[in-house]
Amino acid sequence: MVQASSHFIAICSDSVGETAEAVVQATMRQFELPDTEIKRFMNVRDEDELSRVMEEVAERKGFVAYTLVQPELREAMKEEAVRLNIRAVDIMGPMMQAFADTFHNDPKEKPGLLHRMDDNYFRRVEALDFAVQYDDGKDVSAILKADIVLLGVSRISKTPLSMFLAHKGYKTVNIPIVPELTPPAQLKDVQPGRVFGLTIQPELLLKIRSERLKVMGLPNNVQYATSTRVEEEIAYAQSLFKELNCPVIDVTDKAIEETAGLIIRML
């Protein structure tokens, strides 16, 4: 028998399920739901496989969010949901119907078109390789090759933001800002509008650093996680951003996706 968690959400897709999971993750932020498991069932292409997915969802008393482009599978999903008394949320169907009704066009009904290996796919792969290779200022020569340059103090989420932007196809390099280190000279040669400063409320950064030290088993009274040091680093970073005349984004209480959206709109 499958071990039941407090909350179980299934993602059922005839492709990789990324779209449905993104919607579920965004919605989850509006709720306090500890011990929630999201499980992807990918490349579901026939009714027998779909039935097995739904049996597990029923057993674990969860619900399913699905992206199925083939009409017969969507219909099978609805029938299984009724049979097993499961809540099933169609993520893509209503949007496809809106396109068809408004623009008088029929969908291709081919799974996986979002992830086909076209130019955009290879651009994302290249950007991800770039972000990994040059993460955390490993090679400052990458600054002049990047689409986006992120500046910020330690533990301000530069790396996850870089990876998210790379997934969108932007070659991103992130540079740590430390008062004792001279900023890379290449920053002054970057095309205007490509450098972005990240800042955060000192209280939140102090909490993040203290938690990091706790996870690593280190004492929380080191200089790195003192209010004096945190305020000094943020003030230094702000002065550098002003000198570079770059946009500054306060990431306090912002999701990675939200910060990335702001950056992309400003490019």
Automatic annotation (TrEMBL):
* GO function terms (MF aspect): transferase activity
Q: Which reaction does it catalyse?
A: N(tele)-phospho-L-histidyl/O-phospho-L-threonyl-[pyruvate, phosphate dikinase] + phosphate + H(+) = N(tele)-phospho-L-histidyl/L-threonyl-[pyruvate, phosphate dikinase] + diphosphate; N(tele)-phospho-L-histidyl/L-threonyl-[pyruvate, phosphate dikinase] + ADP = N(tele)-phospho-L-histidyl/O-phospho-L-threonyl-[pyruvate, phosphate dikinase] + AMP + H(+)
Output the lineage of the source organism: Bacteria, Bacillati, Bacillota, Bacilli, Bacillales
The keyword rRNA processing is assigned to this record: no
**InterPro entries in the record:** Kinase-pyrophosphorylase, PPDK_reg
Q: What is this protein called?
A: Putative pyruvate, phosphate dikinase regulatory protein
Q: What is its EC number?
A: 2.7.11.32, 2.7.4.27
Relate the protein's function as given in its record.
Bifunctional serine/threonine kinase and phosphorylase involved in the regulation of the pyruvate, phosphate dikinase (PPDK) by catalyzing its phosphorylation/dephosphorylation.
Q: Where does ADP bind?
A: 152-159
Main EC class the enzyme belongs to: transferase
What the record says about family reads: Belongs to the pyruvate, phosphate/water dikinase regulatory protein family. PDRP subfamily.
Taxonomically, the superkingdom here is Bacteria
Keywords linked to the UniProt accession: Kinase, Nucleotide-binding, Pyruvate, Serine/threonine-protein kinase, Transferase
